[in-house]
Each structure stands twice: as structure tokens, then as C-alpha cells.
Specification:
Elements (H helix, E strand, L loop, with lengths): L8 E8 L5 H13 L3 E6 L4 E8 L3 H10 L3 E7 L17 E5 L2 E5 L5 E5 L6 H14 L3 E3 L17 H14 L3 E4 L6 H7 L2 E4 L7 H9 L4 E4 L6 H13 L5 E5 L20 H8 L4 E3 L1 H5 L2 H13 L4 E5 L17 H30 L1
Parallel strand pairs: 7-8, 7-14, 8-9, 9-10, 10-11, 11-12, 12-13, 13-14
Antiparallel strand pairs: 1-3, 1-4, 2-3, 5-6
This protein binds phosphoenolpyruvate (PEP) and manganese (II) ion.
Phosphoenolpyruvate (PEP) binds next to loops.
């Protein structure tokens, strides 16, 4: 009996030396293509990296050849199903900055970032007063949905472009970069005109066309984990964005669906274990969302402390000047005063976070 030979797909990452010329990069690209590998060039700030997928049993000998090619710093086999977002491919943690009117925020390094604002942009008064109060309390980024994914078609769907304009004006006024959700590929262009960060909602985590589209955008992407998604599925979705050429991805765990008490006490279960798991597996910044996970305002501040303590890079919470009148997610929205209290409560935890963070940075540099 004849056995069918299995074709094994292999992945490798070739990191070029920092001063490697484009000719050297082309040489590696040519070699990989000759071997039937599909090279994908990533030009980073420090160095160029080539990720390649191909088949063949003799990957080790090919890696050995690559390591001898002038200009190549390292050539490694990648075992995870996602390659561009894996730590194997990129040892140091990814960080980048977002800016608006003098407000500069570094994501993924040195700063625990608090994103706050209403679930939906509802009016000028609402978004301006929220922006003012959260800026005073120390939030770094303003959120507000203009295109809303709602379970009911009769629920408020967002203000659309008018909402984007208001959000952007409020961000300008208070020097806060802004984040908002994009639901469809066709909306990416307009959202990019107003927002500093594009949010992909939990329901769209596996909207592959949308992921491909934001992969083409030159704005950071805040990718929320689907309530039923595994860590691997989450990372595969991030991989779509990176494969499109957009290296600026933030992962956000926002609560999983499975719960024995079926949402009687909280809306979802926040998987904070995902933070260290993801930090081991990927170089991308990891956020948590204690508002959408708990669904209850009185729980948010206490869960937020755990988010800082576990070493996340930041959190997203919802704040509304009058939560009882909110058009979406009022039950989990903090009042501006509650947000100020939360920020004060987080103070000692943030100091510890900074200490821990500098230890990690020192250890990885050693
Ligand atoms: C939101 O951020 O308002 C939102 C809809 O979040 P999620 O996609 O996590 O439900
Ligand atoms: Mn919401």
C-alpha cells in the first residue's frame, strides 16, 4: 500500500543586520523564492525582517545556508501557526506612539495607558464634557463609538460621520488621541480621516475582509478578542493585520462568553490569564476591558486594579456624564467622578507597574 506523502508547511524568519543594504535583502528574497518559499518583507525601524512560508523537509539545511549569507543576522524556524505576531519572530516588545494636538501616548512601553470615554458618541455636549473630565483625571486616550454593533437593529446605531467629527474635535480640544470602532471594510477610509486608532469590535474579530482592510491602513488597530475565541484564533486574527503590512496592533481581551451563571452577575468573564499567556506568545501590546467584561459599573474599578497588577499595557473603560441616560452600555459606564476615583485608586498599583516594567526591560536588555 502506498502512503500519501504529507506536505509540511514550514515558516521561517530571517532578521537582517541593522545596516544590511537593500541588495542584501533582495539576495535573501531571491534565495527564498528559488526554494519555493513565499517571502514577506517587513521593514522595521531597526532592521528588515523577512518572514517566509514554504514546504520542504530540509528546512534546517536551508536555515544553515541563510545564516551564512552576508547581511543576515539570524535565521529561525517558527513553530507557531502565526508568525509575524509571534515572539519567535520578534523578541522585543512592540511599542509605538499616537499623537494629537500635543498629546503623545506611547503604547506598549513605559506607560500604562487608560482609554476612556462613552460607549457611543451621542452629542457635542456629551463627548466634550466627558473628554474634559477624563483628561483632568489622567486618561490618555478618548474613546467613543460612531458606528455601533448592536444586538438589536432597533437600538441606537451611532451618529456615523457626525459622531466621528465630534470625537475628533473633542480629542483636539483636550489633546487626547481618539479611538473608535470600524465595522465594515468600506468604513476604514472615513474612520482613518478622523481617528488615531481603529477599533475592531469583538463581534468582528474574525471578519477577515475587515482585518485585511485595516492591514492596509497606516493607523494602529485595537483588536478585541471575540467572546468565544481561543488565544490562537485571536492571534491568527492579529496576524491578518500584520500580514497586510500594518505592524501596529493592540490586542484587547474583553471578556469571554462561557459562564455557569449565564450572565446573572457579570456580562462576561474577563480572562486576565490571557495577559501573561499573550505576552509570552506575542510581542504586541495587550489591553484589558473591565467594562464590557463585567457589564457593571460598581465592579469596574476593582477589576481595573487586577488589570494593572497582571501587567497589561492598558485598559479600556466607559465613562458617561449621565450613565442612566446613555444610549448604549449605561450600566457599565462610570460617571466622571467615579472615573476620577478609579484613577486615584489605581495610583499605587501604577507605581508598582512602572517598577515591574523597568525590571522587565532591564532583564530583556541584559
Ligand atoms: C465597545 O467597545 O463599545 C464594544 C462594542 O466592545 P466589544 O466589541 O468588546 O463588545
Ligand atoms: Mn460599549
Amino acid at each position: 500500500m502506498q502512503c500519501e506523502q504529507q506536505v509540511v508547511e514550514e515558516k521561517m524568519i530571517v532578521a537582517m543586520e541593522q545596516d544590511a543594504s537593500s541588495e542584501r535583502v533582495s539576495q535573501v528574497e531571491y534565495l527564498l523564492a528559488q526554494w519555493g518559499y513565499n517571502p514577506h518583507i517587513i521593514v522595521g525601524e531597526e532592521r528588515t525582517v523577512i518572514a517566509a512560508v514554504g514546504t520542504g523537509p530540509d528546512i534546517e539545511s536551508r536555515l544553515a545556508i541563510l545564516r551564512e549569507v552576508p547581511g543576515v543576522a539570524t535565521a529561525t524556524r517558527v513553530s507557531s501557526p502565526y508568525k509575524l505576531c509571534s515572539r519567535e519572530a520578534h523578541k522585543s516588545s512592540t511599542s509605538f506612539t499616537v499623537k494629537r494636538q500635543g498629546g503623545t501616548v506611547t503604547i506598549g512601553d513605559g506607560q500604562f495607558v487608560v482609554i476612556a470615554g462613552p460607549c457611543s458618541v451621542e452629542s457635542g455636549d456629551q463627548i466634550f464634557s466627558t473628554a474634559k473630565s477624563i483628561a483632568e483625571s489622567g486618561a490618555a486616550i478618548l474613546r467613543g463609538g460612531a458606528f455601533k454593533p448592536r444586538s438589536s437593529p432597533y437600538a441606537f446605531q451611532g451618529l456615523g460621520e457626525d459622531g466621528l467629527k465630534l470625537l475628533s474635535e473633542a480629542g483636539d480640544e483636550f489633546g487626547l488621541p481618539v479611538i473608535t470602532e470600524v465595522m465594515r471594510p468600506a468604513q476604514v477610509e472615513i474612520v482613518c480621516q478622523y481617528a488615531d486608532i481603529l477599533q475592531i469590535g469583538a463581534r468582528n474579530m474574525q471578519n477577515f475582509d475587515l482585518l485585511k482592510e485595516v492591514g492596509q491602513a497606516r493607523k494602529p488597530v485595537f483588536l478585541k478578542r471575540g467572546p468565544n475565541a481561543s488565544i490562537t484564533e485571536f492571534l491568527m486574527s492579529a496576524e491578518y493585520v500584520l500580514a497586510g503590512g500594518n505592524q501596529q496592533v493592540i490586542l484587547c481581551e474583553r471578556g469571554l462568553d462561557y459562564t455557569k451563571d449565564k450572565g446573572e452577575h457579570t456580562r462576561n468573564i474577563l480572562d486576565i490569564q490571557a495577559v501573561p499567556v499573550l505576552q509570552d506568545k506575542t510581542h504586541l501590546p495587550v489591553f484589558l476591558d473591565p467594562a464590557h467584561s463585567s457589564g457593571k459599573r460598581h465592579l469596574v474599578s476593582r477589576i481595573a486594579k487586577a488589570c494593572v497588577a497582571i501587567g497589561a499595557n492598558g485598559i479600556m473603560v466607559e465613562v458617561h456624564p449621565d450613565p442612566a441616560k446613555a444610549l448604549s452600555d449605561g450600566a457599565q459606564s462610570l460617571t466622571p467622578a467615579q472615573f476620577a476615583d478609579m484613577m486615584a485608586d489605581l495610583g499605587p498599583y501604577l507605581e508598582l507597574w512602572e517598577e515591574e516594567h523597568s525590571k522587565t526591560v532591564a532583564a530583556s536588555a541584559a
